């Protein structure tokens, strides 16, 4: 099958890649662009481990066909840190041990960033609803919620 | 394009289409992305109506304050479709055309008299949303037709709507029962017009005419609400599955119908003249 030339901005850099039309953006990011922070859990939009920001909206990249990303602005977990310095969310996940196996973590970080971008001071309930589309099979939810609360607090102080 | 390939499939957010392809339930030769057509991703209003593109992400309905104030029921139904990740992509057109009896936005659209503008090679036609879905996974659209946009008449003053659904967990599940309600009050505070629609309790979303008639001229007092609940339970023809038995779905439909009518009443009282 012919491959389509796709031009995007990923994590602030212009990136061109080729992908078959029926390829998911998730697979294109992993296999063509080399960004393996996006993970495939379910492949059906239920688990959120492939979450990215697509034009500033949190989206499951497994449900997006690669050509749909043409002209889009994408943020993956690889773009969260700033010049080697971890994002407060990443730092708080690390310090709060808000992960066990780590497969779900990039998706949680992106969904949490999407929440804090819109709502810098969320309640615990708002955090739980905003992260409802992300599954953690090591059942670390409480630590994840606390890490997001801590990051929100630190980011407000900055 | 749709006429040329019998297995061509249009999609909006693809939140249903991708899992269906992966699950082997369909294998389209051609996929057509409707989001590249401006009209299909719009959200506008004028004096007479709101126009919602068939592929407009549902997050835009929940984020748009003017829309949410006028149609809180549609907005809350849109906000219940999957996770934030899904709502960035899911659409009223997709939610309707997927043909699920449990589609959250459909009862909310129906009680607001929403119409679908359908485009095809023979021209455009306007169909009431209640007539689009003909059975589970089945619509009245020909294979070369698609929905362009939805039209919702501006809500008169003293009108309120609501959508409630029952799921076994807090988030991320398919409705066991979904109820959309809308009432318009007369100046004296009695109900002048009422609409009630149930999702997930029959092969398609159903209107409950007996409950609507019972509400007219009343203030939705306890006796009237008992009639509404009984009519809602009676209108059910549900499946029996792991998420809800027939008896459970029938009972919950009655309870949610009462609650939805009361919320719609309260909202109608608050929306006095500020259209």
What would you say about this model in short?
The complex is a heterodimer of chains A (158) and B (275). Chain A is α+β, with helices and mostly antiparallel strands and 158 residues long.
Task: Provide a descriptive summary of the structure in words.
The complex is a heterodimer of chains A (158) and B (275). Chain A has 158 residues and is of the alpha+beta class. Chain A has 2 domains: 77 residues, Ubiquitin-like (UB roll); 70 residues, Orthogonal Bundle (DNA polymerase, domain 1), CATH 1.10.150. In chain A, 34% of the residues lie in helices and 17% in strands. Chain A is built from 5 helices and 5 strands; from the N terminus they run E-E-H-E-E-E-H-H-H-H. Chain A has a 5-stranded mixed β-sheet, sandwiched between helices. The longest helix of chain A has 17 residues. Chain A is globular, with a radius of gyration of 15 Å. By secondary structure, chain B is α+β, with helices and mostly antiparallel strands. Chain B has 2 domains: 118 residues, 2-Layer Sandwich (Uridine Diphospho-n-acetylenolpyruvylglucosamine Reductase, domain 3); 112 residues, CO dehydrogenase flavoprotein, C-terminal domain (Enolase-like, domain 1). Helices cover 32% and strands 24% of the residues of chain B. In chain B, the strands form 4 sheets. Chain B has a 5-stranded antiparallel β-sheet, with no helix packed on it. Chain B has a 4-stranded antiparallel β-sheet with strand order 10-11-12-13, sandwiched between helices. A two-stranded parallel sheet of chain B has the order 1-2. In chain B, helix 4 packs antiparallel against helix 7, helix 8 packs antiparallel against helix 9 and helix 9 crosses helix 10. The relative contact order of chain B is 0.13. Chains A and B meet through strand 4 and helix 3 of A and helix 1 and helix 5 of B.
């Amino acid at each position: 099958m012919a491959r389509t030339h796709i031009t995007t901005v990923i994590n602030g850099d212009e990136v061109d890649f080729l992908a078959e039309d029926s390829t998911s953006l998730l697979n294109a990011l992993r296999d063509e662009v080399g960004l393996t922070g996006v993970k495939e859990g379910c492949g059906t939009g239920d688990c959120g481990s492939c979450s990215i920001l697509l034009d500033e909206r949190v989206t499951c990249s497994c449900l997006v066909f690669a050509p749909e990303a043409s002209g889009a602005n994408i943020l993956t977990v690889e773009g969260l840190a700033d010049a080697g310095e971890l994002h407060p969310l990443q730092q708080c996940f690390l310090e709060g041990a808000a992960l066990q196996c780590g497969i779900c973590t990039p998706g949680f970080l992106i969904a949490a960033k999407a929440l804090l971008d819109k709502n810098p001071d969320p309640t615990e309930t708002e955090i739980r609803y905003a992260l409802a589309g992300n599954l953690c099979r090591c059942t670390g939810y409480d630590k994840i919620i606390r890490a997001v609360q801590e990051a929100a607090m630190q980011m407000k102080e900055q | 394009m749709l006429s040329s390939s019998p297995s061509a499939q249009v999609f909006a957010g693809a939140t249903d289409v991708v899992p269906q392809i992966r699950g082997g339930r369909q294998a389209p030769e051609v996929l057509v992305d409707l989001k590249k057509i401006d009209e299909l991703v719009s959200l506008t209003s004028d004096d007479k109506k709101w126009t919602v593109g068939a592929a407009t992400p549902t997050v835009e309905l929940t984020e748009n304050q003017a829309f949410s104030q006028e149609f809180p029921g549609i907005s809350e139904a849109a906000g219940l479709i999957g996770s934030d990740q899904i709502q960035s992509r899911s659409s009223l057109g997709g939610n309707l055309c997927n043909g699920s009896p449990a589609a959250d936005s459909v009862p909310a659209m129906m009680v607001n008299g929403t119409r679908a503008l359908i485009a095809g090679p023979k021209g455009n036609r306007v169909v009431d949303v209640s007539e689009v879905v003909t059975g589970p996974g089945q619509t009245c659209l020909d294979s070369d037709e698609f929905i362009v946009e939805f039209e919702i008449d501006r809500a008169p003053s003293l009108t309120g709507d609501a959508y409630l659904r029952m799921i076994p967990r807090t988030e991320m599940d398919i409705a066991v029962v979904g109820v959309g309600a809308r009432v318009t009050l007369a100046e004296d505070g009695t109900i002048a017009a009422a609409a009630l629609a149930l999702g997930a309790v029959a092969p398609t979303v159903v209107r409950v005419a007996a409950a609507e008639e019972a509400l007219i001229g009343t203030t939705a007092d306890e006796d009237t609400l008992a009639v509404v609940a009984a009519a809602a339970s009676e209108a059910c023809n549900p499946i029996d599955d792991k998420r809800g038995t027939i008896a459970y779905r029938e009972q919950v439909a009655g309870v949610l119908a009462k609650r939805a009518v009361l919320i719609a009443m309260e909202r109608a009282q608050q929306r006095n003249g500020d259209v």
